[in-house]
Amino acid sequence: MKKRLFTLASLLLIGHVATAQKVEFEEYDLANGMHVILHQDNTAPVVTTSVMYHVGAKDEDPERTGFAHFFEHLLFEGTENIERGEFMKIIPANGGKFNANTTDDRTYYYEVFPSNKVELGLWLESERLMHPIINQIGVDTQNEVVKEEKRMRVDNQPYGKFLEEVKVNLFKEHPYRWTTIGKMEHLDAATLEEFQDFNKKFYIPNNAVLVVAGDINKTEVKKMIQDYFGPIPKGTPVTRNLPKEAPITTEINAKAYDSNIQIPAIIQAYRTPSYKDKDSYVLNMISEYLSSGKSSKLYKKLVDDKKMAMQVGAMNISQEDYSEYIIFGLPLGDIPLETLTKEIDEEIVKIQTNLISERDHQKLLNQFENNFVNSNSSIEGIANSLATYYLLHDDVNLINDEINIYRSITREDIQAVAKKYLNPNQRLLLEYLPEDKKQ
């Protein structure tokens, strides 16, 4: 009886969450092809203005990597109407905050303002798009900024280069084979004209989505959007014909060395499907099952019980064309990397051979319900989600419906997906070693 009551309560909670978290939005296109999404929430006097561009590291020339990330910095330099260095002063001076980020698939800029500054946010983003100044002084300045970022986040960071090593081994043809930050020598070699051409090709209204979310009057905001973004000319549509990867059928064995570490790591990496594929959602669940929290299977076994690992984890790096499923472990003491691999593989085989327990399955569903609630808990988060679901998934309503994909995942789905993708003959096995182990 208690179990039935618990199940009923869970169902009622799920229904309540779905209703409470429903995000209302309106979307339309400008004549120049720019997509616009509005979300009105007048509960707090805050507004987010954001633009996401469909350009990332995968859109770069293999000899000019790092351009997309470079533009994340460069387009704060200034415009015809904003003096150099003033862009980042105007926002905090008006009670706002801002940021930008780049992935292999897209670049995102946003500001959060008091709602009476919504017009300022729209003007700033329209200036970035319509009147950017891309000159040699800006390129030289941001080149040094990006180099320092790479030194801090990659070159001098323990295990900072492991993703670079994974990508170059996992992808042979597709541009996911290089990292978002790219190679500094490519930026050094690039001409000013190459930067200007990159801007003309990708920073166009018909390759972007504008989101305005928060305490707004939609009628007023629509007029502002038309005034600021409507006059921007449409660009030549971006076409992509990226190479496909042949399936991995034999385990790839590789070694990499890092002067910033003393403890080696073992990394298993699998090439998995796009985040548009339901299997990618299942792999997210498998990651949660294996390594989220101290009660997860890998942590409990290898860190708590057997004392074989200092750290262990699994993650599905979801991307537009392919994803990367990564499992890693740092051994404790003199435990060989081969032993960690064997222990990890045993847990994968368990998922492939037996259904996970009903209790574990329900726990996973609860965790993803919680993630769903948190992702829509702020205006800033909602703006990001609306942009992402439109630009990369072509389905804005996933902001409300994506949780139903997770709810539909069964224990049988988890077993089947583990069998389909997480096999030794389909992976990269990378030994990530201290530099002094190099022979």
Automatic annotation (TrEMBL):
Keyword Protease: yes
UniProt KW Protease keyword: yes
Ranges of residues in domain Peptidase M16 N-terminal: 36-175
Recorded superkingdom: Bacteria
Signal peptide: 1-20
Swiss-Prot/TrEMBL keywords: Hydrolase, Metalloprotease, Protease, Signal, Zinc
UniProt-listed InterPro entries: Metalloenz_LuxS/M16 (IPR011249), Pept_M16_N (IPR011765), Peptidase_M16 (IPR050626), Peptidase_M16_C (IPR007863)
Domain Peptidase M16 C-terminal, residue spans: 190-367
Pfam families registered for this protein in UniProt: Peptidase_M16, Peptidase_M16_C
Family statement drawn from the similarity comment of this UniProt entry: Belongs to the peptidase M16 family.
Full protein name: M16 family metallopeptidase
